[in-house]
Amino acid sequence: MERVNHSVVSEFILLGLSKSQNLQILFFLGFSVVYAGIVLGNLLILVTVTFDSRLHTPMYFLLINLSCMDMILASSATPKMIVDFLRKRKTISWWGCYSQMFFMHLLGGSEMMLLVAMAIDRYVAICKPLHYTSIMNPRVLGGLLLSSYTVGFVHSSSQMAFMLNLPFCGPNVVDSFFCDLPLVIKLACKDTYMLQLLVIADSGLLSLVCFLLLLVSYTVIIHSVRHRAASGSAKAFSTLSAHITVVTLSFAPCVFIYVWPFSRYSVDKILSVFYTIFTPLLNPIIYTLRNQEVKAAIKKIRTQHINSESRVLTITP
């Protein structure tokens, strides 16, 4: 596959988070721990849901897909950022930059739609509990998941299609720790004002539609829960609080990044770090600590593991 433009730029230079050598060493250690937490935390959810038959429900099927998306989203930028903390010259090839942007928009768009699917699941479970199993059947779940990835792919492809025709003849310095689409577009050797508007409209429309769907879904759910018995509403609110917290963490950074995508404020870097690194870390923590079923399943698996080790030690002479 050949590039269709005639750029002379073959790589981009990433400025990273800081120029201070001491801070970069500190960031290297800190973000290495955070990335390990992302992988281990999301793997814990995957293993727990897979091995506990009580969690083989539509909600947890969607949850393990969210965990997979979080791991891949974080892995698209975080490992390179960690390695770059030890390098004086932080570069990324043109195709590496293009691939990084493609997968980040693919997973970001897919995750937004998956959160909508999870809201639909909660709506059916809380508002139509007697028909939950028949409505949220495997065919519907597969359709929701396929729709999430399809929307993410269309969104990412539409964004990246513009990039293939942009000429890059210098400068090639990106003031971030990864290839952020708005920042890369600014480096093109042509007027990109209309393209900037298209990028904002594309990302903004997807975010707005998903946000409105989520807002309507959770408003109806909360209204329904408030008219229930105290015991039932307490459990429902516990589940909803975890979902709403994750939605807030996912959408809040996007609002700031894409409402003012071409500003030079350092807050953009902070929000980018939060969205690409800390949100994938916080999601498994929130769903683990705020969900009694997951906590009970983890405790059960840990107990079974300890008992199996005890039996092995007892049998071994």
TrEMBL record:
Transmembrane segments: 25-47, 59-78, 98-120, 140-158, 204-225, 237-260, 272-289
Domain G-protein coupled receptors family 1 profile span(s) in chain numbering: 41-287
Family, similarity comment: Belongs to the G-protein coupled receptor 1 family.
Keywords for the protein's UniProt record, in alphabetical order: Cell membrane, Disulfide bond, G-protein coupled receptor, Membrane, Olfaction, Receptor, Sensory transduction, Transducer, Transmembrane, Transmembrane helix
InterPro entries per record: GPCR_Rhodpsn, GPCR_Rhodpsn_7TM, Olfact_rcpt, Olfactory_Receptors
UniProt xrefs under SUPFAM superfamilies: Family A G protein-coupled receptor-like (SSF81321)
Gene3D superfamilies, A to Z: Rhodopsin 7-helix transmembrane proteins
Membrane topology: Multi-pass membrane protein
Lineage: superkingdom: Eukaryota
Main location: membrane
Subcellular location: Cell membrane; Membrane
GO molecular function: G protein-coupled receptor activity; olfactory receptor activity
Lineage: Eukaryota, Metazoa, Chordata, Craniata, Vertebrata
One Pfam family hit: 7tm_4
Role of this protein: Putative odorant or sperm cell receptor.
Name the record gives this protein: Olfactory receptor
Record-level GO cellular component terms: plasma membrane
